[in-house]
Amino acid sequence: MRTTITIDDGLLAQVRRRAAELGQTVSQVIEDSVREKLLRRDDQEAAGFRVRAFRGGRLRPGVDLDDNGALLEVLDER
User: Fold this and answer.
1) How many helices (H) and strands (E) does the chain have?
2) Euclidean distance between CA atoms 53 and 66, whole angstroms
3) CB within 8 Å of 19: residues ≥ 6 apart
4) CA torsion, points 37, 42, 43, 44, in degrees to nearest 10?
5) Can you tell me the distance from the alpha carbon of 44 to that of 42, in angstroms, rounded to the nearest whole number?
6) Contact 71/63 with Cβ under 8 angstroms?
7) Do 37 and 48 form a contact (C-beta atoms < 8 A)?
8) Does 4 have pLDDT greater than 70?
9) How many Å apart are CA 14 and CA 7, to the nearest integer?
10) Tens digits of residue pLDDT in 19-66
11) Domain locations along the chain
12) Per-residue b or e along 48-63, where b marks 16 or more CB atoms closer than 10 Å to that residue's CB
């Protein structure tokens, strides 16, 4: 499909250089770049979770981090 876009002159120059390096058309380079960006975004959204930093204080009294059984008991109390 044919379409018209407005693109920064410097960016277009980079795309033209890249197309020449790859032996592709400008359209192919732009299409591949857009496709890659969209796929990357889909992959990031599919991950669907964030790592949250713990900003708490100290350990709960009596919790022994070296004792897995004790840790499981504490977790089961929740």
Assistant:
1) 3, 0
2) 22
3) 25, 26, 28, 29
4) 90
5) 5
6) yes
7) no
8) yes
9) 11
10) 999 999 999 999 999 999 888 876 666 666 677 777 777 777 778 888
11) 1-54
12) eeeeeeeeeeeeeeee
Residue 48 structure tokens: 């669907």
What's the residue count for the chain? 78
3 state SS of 30: helix
Rg (CA), the chain: 26
CB 32 within 8 A of CB 23: no
Q: How far is CA 51 from CA 2, 48, 54, 72, in A?
A: 42, 10, 9, 22
- End-to-end Cα distance, the chain: 58
pTM of this structure = 0.53
